[in-house]
Each structure stands twice: as C-alpha cells, then as structure tokens.
Specification:
Layout (H helix, E strand, L loop, with lengths): L5 E5 L8 E7 L3 H9 L9 E6 L5 E10 L10 E7 L2 H12 L4 E3 L4 H8 L5 H12 L3 H11 L2 H25 L11 H19 L5 H4 L1 E6 L6 H9 L17 E7 L2 E7 L11 H15 L3 E4 L11 E4 L15 E2 L8 H15 L10 H19 L3 H19 L5 H9 L6
The structure holds the ligand Nc1nc2c(c(=O)[nH]1)N(C=O)[C@@H](CNc1ccc(C(=O)N[C@@H](CCC(=O)O)C(=O)O)cc1)CN2, guanosine-5'-triphosphate and magnesium ion (MG).
Subunit structure: Homodimer. Heterotetramer of two MnmE and two MnmG subunits.
Pfam family, one: TrmE_N
Cofactor: K(+)
C-alpha cells in the first residue's frame, strides 16, 4: 500500500463546471468508493449514490462507477464519482478521500503513467494521448488519435519483428560458422535490410507532429501601406494588427495561430519593407525583424511589386476594390481584404498548400523524440547493410532493435517518463 498509494483527482477540467468527475485509482479505490457511497456499486454500471464523509455528513448526490482492475484505463482498480461541478462540492469530496488511509492526490499525468506502468499503453500511445489533450485543430486531433490508438506502436512492432527475423538469420550463420561449408548470408538478406532501412527513411522524411501545434507559417510581406495588416486581420478574423493610411504603421512582427479549414496556421504580419534611409529608427528595427520572419516562413504572401519578392512567394494583388486598381497578370490571387473579396479562394489554396506540408489526417506522425530513435534504427540498418562480418551485422541489428524498444518505451529512463507525464494536467 505504501509503495503503491491510491491516487485521486478531479479529471474533468476546471471548477466550477456542470459536472466534476473525480477518479480514484489503486488498491484502495473500491474501499474508498464504498466508504463514500455507503455501498459497492455493480461493476461497470452507472448508479446514483449519496456521498458522505467519515462523519456521515452528506457531501453530494452523484453518479458513481466502479471498474475493478486489471481491465481498466489505468490497469488498476478504478472508481469514478460524477459530482456536481461546484468548487465546494469538489473540495469536500476530495477532502473526504484524502482522509481515507492509503489515498493521496494524484500528480500531473499520474493516471496515464500508471496505465503505462501496467502495460495498458506504451510510450508512443502515451505521447499520442498528451498530443490529443493539447490538440487545437481537427488535423492535430486526427494525428494524435492515430498515435494514441497505437498506429505508430503497431508499425514499430512490425519493424521490430522484421529485425528479429534478420537477427535470427545472422545468428544461424554464426552458429554454423565453424563448419566448412559455412556459405554466409543469402543475397536477399542484404536486400531485406536495405528495404527496411529505405522504409524507415521514408517515415523520417515525413512532416513531424510538432508542426501540428506550431502550424504552417505564412508570412505576409511587402512595402508599407500595401494592405498587409488588413489582410492579416481578415485571415485571422480579428483586429489583431493596427491598420492605418500612414506608411510604417506596423513595426513589430505580429503572430496569430489559427485554424483555417481544420488546419493549423501561424499567420505573421510584418513591417513594410522599404529603404532604411526613409524609415525612422524604430521602423528600421521592424524591417530587420520582418526579414527575420521571412527567413523562417513556410510560405510568403507577397503584396509588393511583381518579381521582387522572395522567389517562391505567392504574389497577391491587394486592395482590388480601390478605384483605379489595375489587375496584374503575375498575381496568383487578387483580393480585397476590406470587402472580403477573393479571400475564400486564397484560404482554400492555403489549406491545400499547408496540408501537403503537414502530417496527413489520421496518419501517425513522429515527434522529435520518436524521430531521433527511428533515425538511430535507420543508421544501424544502413551500417549493417554495408558490413559482411556476421558478428558485426548482428551487433548493428541489436542496435536497431534497441532503438525500436526505446521508441515505444520497452526501454525507458525515469527522466524521460517525468518529462512526458509532466506534460499532462492533474487528473489525467
Ligand atoms: N468517465 C470517463 N471517461 C473517459 C475516460 C475515463 O477514464 N472515464 N477515459 C480515460 O482515459 C477515456 C476513455 N478511455 C478508457 C480506456 C480504457 C477503458 C477500459 O476500461 N478498458 C478496458 C475495458 C474495455 C471495454 O469495456 O471494452 C480494457 O481495455 O480492458 C476505459 C476508458 C475518455 N473518457
Ligand atoms: N479600399 C481598401 N483599402 C484598403 C484595403 N486594405 C487596406 N486598405 C487601406 O490601406 C491602408 C494601409 O493598410 P494596412 O493594412 O495598414 O497596410 P500595411 O501594409 O499593413 O502597412 P504598414 O504596416 O505601414 O506596412 C489603410 O488605410 C487600409 O484601410 C482594401 O482591401 N481596400
Ligand atoms: Mg501593417
């Protein structure tokens, strides 16, 4: 009981709310529920119960659930109390739980950590869950759910199996290496290693999952008064940037992360680019910052004269509603941010462009940690491919397998787990 305390926490977000779900996980979960509810509810069936503290005082009337382990979300005995979500209600129920022997409040991510410790989920699935909880867009949700549901883990298991088969072949050669007719490894062996390494390289080249949080970076640039901030405001659908007829209004780089068509974007407004000699000192700093932002863009929307923007920028003919506006042949889009004209075509094109650069919907994407481990596996396989000594090949295959194990958390360190589970909120 001391080395495995029973934990409890509010698992349903902020108070006050309509309903506050308090979860209890661990060996004392059943006893705790019985103590508060006055009886042991039927397993896996919702029922209404009066919750009372140790002195018999009524705390709340709540829906309660009892999930006996090990087939539960945490792999332990698990109880839930769906209380009224008022601050005092939650505090009172938590207080009654804390007074019971062997119970303590959960740390951030501790329920998920137990699910991992009990083999209910692996590391890649836990990371998927963390991403799912922080997903802000439809695309991020779909990618995180794929990983949380084990899409990446299953893929890694399949690769690991293939390496195991290859290892067995090498070991076979090693076992018989004393014999005279030891013919070495078959030709298809190297070919199989190469094919696997190639497959890993394809995965490594895919867009990374962090991109889903950061969004596709679109930088709006051009000379002063081109209508950059007005277009920026229209795209982020708020008056985030000041607009005015005075040239040099925007000085700072202004960023907003928004979802357009379920796809995450970071839109960036910049100071108008012009000769630093014409600009005042502050504006000149702004122009420097704008150049910095341009360097980090995934795509530039260029609102300036034809042909002098960044070479792969999209040229935008802005302020199309102005009297005397002359359409430009070179412009990819003609818009009036003020009248809202041409914006939907621009948005559609931006969504298409961003989708190509971001993880595909529902396709398992790699985060930085997973990418590093997979990179190690690929490097080991490429090394194995170049070797002829079976002993050395066996060693490289072991390295590849260790990298896969680390990827899905068969081999982990406490530090790594602290970092991952610290990402979760209390109650998850
Ligand atoms: N009320 C409530 N809602 C919730 C959760 C929760 O813990 N409580 N979850 C918390 O994350 C998520 C659902 N995740 C869950 C994962 C596994 C099991 C579970 O009991 N699994 C068993 C039995 C499955 C079954 O009945 O078919 C198993 O896998 O063996 C429950 C919830 C989201 N919604
Ligand atoms: N008629 C019309 N006026 C526009 C349009 N877009 C911008 N303007 C006007 O043009 C002026 C400059 O617009 P801004 O969006 O501030 O231009 P900017 O490119 O951000 O300028 P700086 O921040 O100084 O570099 C403002 O007076 C806007 O109201 C448009 O689509 N139609
Ligand atoms: Mg501006």
């Amino acid at each position: 009981m001391t080395d495995n305390p029973t934990i409890f926490a509010l698992s349903s977000g902020t108070v006050p709310s309509a309903i506050g779900v308090i979860r209890v996980s661990g060996p004392q979960a059943g006893a705790a529920l019985a103590a508060l509810a006055g009886r042991m509810p039927t397993a896996r069936r919702a029922s209404l119960a009066r919750l009372r503290d140790g002195a018999g005082a009524l705390l709340d009337e709540a829906l309660v659930l009892w999930f006996p382990g090990p087939n539960t979300a945490t792999g332990e005995d698990l109880a839930e109390m769906h209380c009224h979500g008022g601050r005092a209600v939650i505090t009172a129920v938590e207080g009654a739980l804390a007074a019971l022997p062997g119970l303590r409040p959960a740390e951030p991510g501790e329920f998920t950590r137990r699910a991992f410790a009990n083999g209910r989920i692996d590391l890649a699935e836990a990371e998927g869950l963390a991403d799912l909880l922080s997903a802000e867009t439809e695309l991020a949700r779909a990618a995180a759910l794929a990983n949380a549901g084990g899409a990446l883990s299953r893929q890694v298991e399949a690769w690991r199996e293939r390496v195991l088969v290859l290892s067995a072949e090498v070991e076979g050669v090693l076992d018989f290496s004393d014999e005279e007719d030891a013919s070495g490894l078959p030709e298809c062996f190297t070919w199989n290693i190469a094919a696997l390494a190639e497959e890993l390289r394809t995965w490594l080249a895919r867009p990374r999952s962090e991109r889903l949080g950061e969004g596709f970076r679109v930088v709006i640039a051009g000379p002063p008064n081109a209508g950059k901030s007005t277009l920026f405001n229209a795209l982020v659908e708020s008056e985030a940037a000041i607009t005015s007829p005075i040239a040099g209004t925007t000085r700072d780089v202004i960023e907003r992360t928004v979802a357009i068509g379920g796809v995450p974007f970071t839109l960036v407004d910049t100071a108008g680019l012009r000769d630093a000699a014409v600009a005042d000192a502050i504006e000149a700093i702004g122009i420097d910052r704008a150049k910095g932002a341009l360097a980090r863009a995934d795509l530039v929307l260029w609102l300036g004269p034809e042909g002098i923007g960044p070479h792969d920028a999209w040229e935008i003919a802005a302020q199309a509603d102005r009297p005397g506006f002359t359409p430009k042949d070179s412009a990819r889009f003609t818009v009036s941010a003020m009248k809202g004209e041409g914006l939907s075509a621009l948005k559609t094109a931006l969504v298409d462009r961003a989708r190509a650069a971001l993880p595909k919907p529902g396709e398992a994407a790699l985060n930085a940690r997973q990418h590093a481990r997979l990179g190690e596996a690929a490097a080991a396989l490429e090394a194995a491919k170049a070797l002829s000594d079976p002993l050395l090949i066996a060693e490289e295959l072991r390295r590849a397998r260790l990298a896969f194990d680390r990827l899905i958390g068969r081999a982990t360190t406490e530090d790594m787990l602290d970092t991952l589970f610290g990402r979760f909120c209390i109650g998850k």
